[in-house]
C-alpha cells in the first residue's frame, strides 16, 4: 500500500509525486539539507561557477544606483534567500558610508544561516536595525505584511535563484512579490545571462565533482530521511544546456537498471538503465527576455547592472505609480 499523502512530510509527498510521473522528477528545492548547503558553498568557490563572483562584482558597485532611485527616503532592505549574507554586506557597507537610513530584514528557510547573518551583522554594525525572518519567501513576506508605502522597500532576490524556476513560474513568482510592494518600491533580481554554452556547461560540471556530489546528495537525502535504498555507485550527474531555450538542466542517470524501495513511501520504483530523473533547471536569460518578464509581472525595468564580462545582471525594477 502506498503511504497516504497526509502521513508524509512535505519532502516525502514531493518525492512520491515526482518519482511517480512518467518523466521522473525531483525538485531542486530539496538540495539544501545540511550537507547540501555545505556542498553549495564549495560550488560557489569553484572557479568554473562564475555566477557568485560576477554578482559580487555587481554588488560591490551598485549602491549609488540603488540610492539614487530611493531618493534619500528611509527604507527596508528585504533579502529573499539570505544565504551567508556576504554579498549583501558589500551593499550594507556602501549604504552606511553614504548615510542611508534603512533596516535590514533577511528572509531564509535556513535558521542556522540566519543566525550566522545575525551574528555577523551584530558584530560589524550593532546599531543597524535588523530582523531575521525564517520561512519560505511568501510565508515570511506575509508576516511582514503588504507595503504601506510610508517606508520604501528595496527587495533583493540575488544569486540567480529565479533561474531555478521554469520561466512561466518565475513570472508568477515575481508577480507575487509585487503583491507585497507599493508604488515606488524596488526589486533587484539576479539573472544569469545567455552566453557561450561551454562556459555554462563548465559551471555545472566542475572537474572537482562538487556539482555532481551536490546533485547526488538528493538521493542520499532520500536514503537518510525516507529510508530509501538508492545505490549511489550506480547513479551519475548529467548536465545539458540548450542555447535555444536558455535552459541548463541537471539529471540523475542510473548506469544500469535499478529497483529502489523507499520505505517511508511504501513504494518501489523501477528505473531502466539511463532513464533520467530531472532534478534542476538553471534558466539563462537575455536582457530582452528579462525586460519582457518585468512587463509581464507589471514592473518597470529601470536598468541592468552587469559585471564587466556581461555574464550576469542584477536587474533593477520599480513598481509603477
Ligand atoms: C542556487 N542556484 C541559483 C544554483 C544554480 O546555479 O542554479 C544552484 C546550483 N546548482 C548547481 N550548481 C549550482
UniProtKB/TrEMBL annotation:
One of its GO terms (biological process) is methylation. PANTHER family: ERGOTHIONEINE BIOSYNTHESIS PROTEIN 1. InterPro entries: EgtD_Methyltrsf_superfamily (IPR051128), MeTrfase_dom (IPR019257), MeTrfase_EgtD-like (IPR017804), SAM-dependent_MTases_sf (IPR029063). It comes from Neolewinella marina. It holds the Pfam family Methyltransf_33. SUPFAM superfamilies: S-adenosyl-L-methionine-dependent methyltransferases. Residues 12-318 form the Histidine-specific methyltransferase SAM-dependent domain. Keywords: Methyltransferase, Transferase. The keyword Disulfide bond does not apply. It comes from the Bacteria. This is L-histidine N(Alpha)-methyltransferase. GO terms for molecular function: methyltransferase activity. The keyword Methyltransferase applies.
Amino acid at each position: 500500500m502506498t503511504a497516504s499523502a497526509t502521513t508524509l512530510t512535505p519532502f516525502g509527498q514531493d518525492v512520491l509525486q515526482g518519482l511517480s510521473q512518467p518523466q521522473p522528477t525531483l525538485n531542486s528545492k530539496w538540495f539544501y539539507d545540511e550537507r547540501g548547503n555545505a556542498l553549495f558553498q564549495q560550488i560557489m568557490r569553484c572557479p568554473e561557477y562564475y555566477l557568485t563572483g560576477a554578482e559580487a562584482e555587481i554588488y560591490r558597485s551598485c549602491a549609488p544606483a540603488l540610492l539614487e532611485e530611493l531618493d534619500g527616503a528611509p527604507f527596508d532592505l528585504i533579502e529573499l534567500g539570505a544565504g551567508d549574507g556576504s554579498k549583501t554586506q558589500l551593499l550594507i557597507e556602501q549604504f552606511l558610508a553614504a548615510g542611508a537610513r534603512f533596516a535590514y530584514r533577511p528572509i531564509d528557510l535556513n535558521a542556522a544561516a540566519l543566525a550566522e547573518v545575525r551574528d555577523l551583522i551584530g558584530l560589524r554594525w550593532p546599531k543597524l536595525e535588523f530582523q531575521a525572518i525564517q520561512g519560505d519567501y511568501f510565508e515570511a513576506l506575509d508576516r511582514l505584511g503588504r507595503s504601506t508605502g510610508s517606508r520604501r522597500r528595496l527587495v533583493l532576490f540575488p544569486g540567480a535563484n529565479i533561474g531555478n524556476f521554469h520561466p512561466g513560474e518565475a513570472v508568477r513568482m515575481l508577480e507575487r512579490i509585487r503583491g507585497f510592494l507599493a508604488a515606488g518600491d524596488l526589486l533587484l533580481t539576479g539573472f544569469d545571462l545567455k552566453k557561450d554554452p561551454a562556459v555554462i556547461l563548465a559551471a555545472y560540471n566542475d572537474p572537482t565533482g562538487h556539482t555532481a556530489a551536490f546533485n547526488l546528495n538528493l538521493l542520499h537525502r532520500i536514503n537518510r530521511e525516507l529510508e530509501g535504498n538508492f545505490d549511489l555507485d550506480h547513479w551519475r550527474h548529467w548536465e545539458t544546456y540548450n542555447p535555444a531555450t536558455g535552459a541548463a538542466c541537471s539529471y540523475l542517470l542510473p548506469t544500469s537498471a535499478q529497483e529502489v524501495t523507499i520505505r517511508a513511501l511504501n513504494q518501489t520504483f523501477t528505473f531502466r538503465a539511463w532513464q533520467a530523473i530531472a532534478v534542476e533547471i538553471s534558466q539563462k536569460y537575455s536582457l530582452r527576455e528579462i525586460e519582457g518578464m518585468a512587463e509581464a509581472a507589471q514592473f518597470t525595468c529601470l536598468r541592468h547592472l552587469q559585471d564587466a564580462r556581461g555574464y550576469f545582471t542584477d536587474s533593477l525594477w520599480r513598481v509603477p505609480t
